[in-house]
Target: Oligopeptide/dipeptide ABC transporter ATP-binding protein
Amino acid sequence: MSLLELDGVKVHFPIKKGLLFDRTVGHVYAVDGVSLKVEAGETYGLVGESGCGKTTLGRSVLRLVDITEGSVVLDGTDLAKLPGEEMRRFRRRLQMVFQDPLGSLNPRQNIESILSEGMIAHGIGKDQEERREKIKAILDKVGLPSNALARYPHEFSGGQRQRIGIARALVLEPDVIICDEPVSALDVSVQAQVINLLEELQEELGLTYVVIAHDLAVVRHISDTIGVMYLGSLVEEAPSDALYAEPKHPYTKALMSAVPVPDPEVEDKRERILLTGDLPSPANPPSGCRFHTRCPWAQAERCATERPELRDIGGGHRVACHYAEDIASGKLRLTKGEVVSATREGVEDNPTEDTPEAEAPEADASAAETPAKIPAQAEKPAEKAVVAEKAVEAEDKAATAEEPAKAEGKAEKAAEAKASPKPEAADEADEADEAVASDEAKASEEPEKAV
Ligand SMILES: Nc1ncnc2c1ncn2[C@@H]1O[C@H](COP(=O)(O)OP(=O)(O)O)[C@@H](O)[C@H]1O
Ligand code: SF4
Ligand SMILES: [Mg+2]
Model:
């Protein structure tokens, strides 16, 4: 049995309307039937566009949101059915590291107080002296000086604050840590350090992680298994290497095709799949295959009516697509969208240079400790540069073209390219996370609920 098993987990938020009496007029199908297993000592990476339900799924594991249907089994115990008091005790074993380190740390508490809070709630340490010693040891492990104890969150850099968030989880000796976008709010240079720290801690302490990210590059090197989410469901799951070597689901293919490859020879041959259409609303998901409105291989009738199961297609892949084998073999042709050559035009050989992120690396306590172990991370700004450049180029062409209609189409497509696979849809992520951050701030004020 795996350490953590989710089976058919659904979280549907009611949409209420009415002044006097709340009427439920619909539901947001934020998580709509997710089954996955996380093995002890391993990392499960969960990726997908902003709004696809990653945070809600993470929060459902800790029962910070009500589970509409399904089970969450930790070490043989179904958390979905646990009474409140027992669930509170189980929360020690499941900890969360949040995206916004500042928002999740109470500004009025010093670090000792923040880190002691959960320990007190769970009866860890016989007195404050003992707790302080343990906190000092953990601060050392996460690369912070012990004089951090008396300081306040605003006195630290973003990367350091995330180290405090990780320390807060570690002092409770959890079985599983759910890291929700742990580096999205950090500078690129600091992102690699925090990811490397998580890896080192895992090796040393045998931790089990679920790492949530909208950026494929973030989860690539840290994950043993990766699950790709689209509109509340998993569309593909595979060992990390297999997924990156050969993605099988059309959505994963499109996401991957947007990530530049460091090898120039491979990069020159890279083809980019451009999706059509916007991400549908989770309050009104498409019938049949949820991806059929944007899928370049969608087949009439079946894809629009029959929802594909996540099925094993060999090579370690589980894929929710009726036609995964035919797409892989090339038997099925594109029905919409476009595959274009993603040349290195406009990409600097060293893409981290000349980027604002690289120019202003954050002053982190351990800034010099490790070089970036996640090379793909460095390509992120370059990717944006290519996309932006293509958009401008297409817009220019649209302005001067002999066939305005055709050129307009190109501009639209380029704009889509900018918006479509959007693993870097930061604005939306910010919006979605504002609500979460305020919950977290609340949570840190209410320790008995938060821990
Ligand atoms: N408490 C809530 N009430 C209603 N809708 C919510 C709530 N929390 C999240 N949602 C909605 O559920 C969907 C999934 O959100 P979220 O889990 O935050 O996605 P992600 O983390 O992948 O960006 C979004 O459409 C979001 O607006
Ligand atoms: S089932 Fe159809 S619409 Fe869905 S991913 Fe496969 S080909 Fe595309
Ligand atoms: Mg989120």
